[in-house]
Amino acid sequence: xxxxxxxxxxxxxxxxxxxxxxxxxxxxxxxxxxxxxxxxxxxxxxxxxxxxxxxxxxxxxxxxxxxxxxxxxxxxxxxxxxxxxxxxxxxxxxxxxxxxxxxxxxxxxxxxxxxxxxxxxxxxxxxxxxxxxxxxxxxxxxxxxxxxxxxxxxxxxxxxxxxxxxxxxxxxxxxxxxxxxxxxxxxxxxxxxxxxxxxxxxxxxxxxxxxxxxxxxxxxxxxxxxxxxxxxxxxxxxxxxxxxxxxxxxxxxxxxxxxxxxxxxxxxxxxxxxxxxx
Amino acid sequence: xxxxxxxxxxxxxxxxxxxxxxxxxxxxxxxxxxxxxxxxxxxxxxxxxxxxxxxxxxxxxxxxxxxxxxxxxxxxxxxxxxxxxxxxxxxxxxxxxxxxxxxxxxxxxxxxxxxxxxxxxxxxxxxxxxxxxxxxxxxxxxxxxxxxxxxxxxxxxxxxxxxxxxxxxxxxxxxxxxxxxxxxxxxxxxxxxxxxxxxxxxxxxxxxxxxxxxxxxxxxxxxxxxxxxxxxxxxxxxxxxxxxxxxxxxxxxxxx
Lengths: 278, 256
Hints:
The structure holds two protein chains of two kinds. By secondary structure, chain A is an alpha+beta fold. Helix content of chain A is 50%, strand content 12%. Chain A is built from nine helices and eight strands. Chain A has helices at 14-39, 114-141, 144-149, 153-157, 159-167, 182-205, 208-211, 224-251, 254-262; strands at residues 7-10, 43-44, 58-64, 70-76, 79-82, 89-91, 97-99, 265-268. In chain A, helix 1 packs antiparallel against helix 2 and helix 8 crosses helix 9. The longest helix of chain A has 28 residues, at 114-141. Chain B has eight helices and ten strands. Chain B is an alpha+beta fold. The N and C termini of chain B lie far apart (53 Å). Chain B has a five-stranded mixed β-sheet with strand order 2-1-10-5-6. In chain B, strands 3, 4, 7, 8 and 9 form a five-stranded antiparallel β-sheet that branches. In chain B, helix 2 crosses helix 3 (34-54). The radius of gyration of chain B is 22 Å and the shape is globular. At the A-B interface, helix 1, helix 2, helix 7 and helix 8 of A face helix 1, helix 2, helix 3 and strand 4 of B.
């Protein structure tokens, strides 16, 4: 194609690449083992305890119909939906439908084991937190944060156009593709500095021992059961972020992005959409 | 099909296989190996070390009467089927006594009346089940530190093993748990005989249960019969320090 014009540039440093993949693995394990932990008590509440007299915020349960059929039932803020096959009554590792909140194909371990799920969750929580601390420190001191992630005034002025471009799946090309676009920067910053710290904090708030470090701090989040609800919601917001992230990677030059996150090199093709075949 | 296409296809197949290993049986296999289990175990040990360092002598949050759960949920055994326990319950626990034994200078046998005559502590605390739910209750009992003061554990005692009266449903071993000495002496660790201003109901562990605040519910052993000071809990039952630790891979450290 335009081999003479296109060129590779060093987009991601080795520490960023390493920390990206460590984080990816940790988040996947945390999410899937977290759903297994949730399955042990698939009900969420708001408040300091589960028995406040108020109904649960979310309940994923099962029910037996008059004809003996087992159905999955999900109640969100009082609204009831039948969710057989997806939530409440779901396939196990053997494919058979049973009373189980999240299906076994999305949980670690696949079969019910609260103890092992916690083992996985807390090991990768340490991987995730230490990796996250390393990333934030590296980003500060290497100026990655300031140089690559902080939106400029011009970025912010162009936010309307960037939204329009995203909706039409139009991605920056040529030299503009060297930099993150403004929505990308804002998405990354809100994940790094809002969602991830919040999911960690809400996780800590569920630990009875950590609760005691400063008595009452868990009430900032509305109490331990609210913290559990927040932890669950933020986990799904992170899932949503990852889904959009992977989607954008696919539609804006999958191999170019994959290569740049493995080798560091990203191909810039002036006046042509980046990525595609080479 | 070009060679790069083949390469890409192979990459995607590999990725899918890796994903499969992660989801289905893969994790169970990794977790079931000795190496896998001991690597995963690092998380638990790291958590306990850091927690103990951050919050050695801190107190669990205490709540007000307004926060009390209308009925305190009972979990695990709610009515022991053991004949010996039922006989004790029938007599209103008049013949029941808590044994303090093992590595102590003065082994003790304390009746319910004797425990009730000791200095009492009442605390409104939140009970967090490992499964995820919480309930708030008002507990009254004797600080374990007071009882330990009478029994005088020997310097080599490192753990307290709590022996219970209830055989778990469907099993043939009694419930038991163990805690470290630091938790034993914690101001909020009490041997509770009262819940919400009344006698401790059978469903919640009558006549006596442990409250070891800052730990998950399965540590709070119910239907207490004996407390044994030991250097190691490895010799009891499955060797992991508690019923659920033995049966279902629950972590011995229950602070998280």
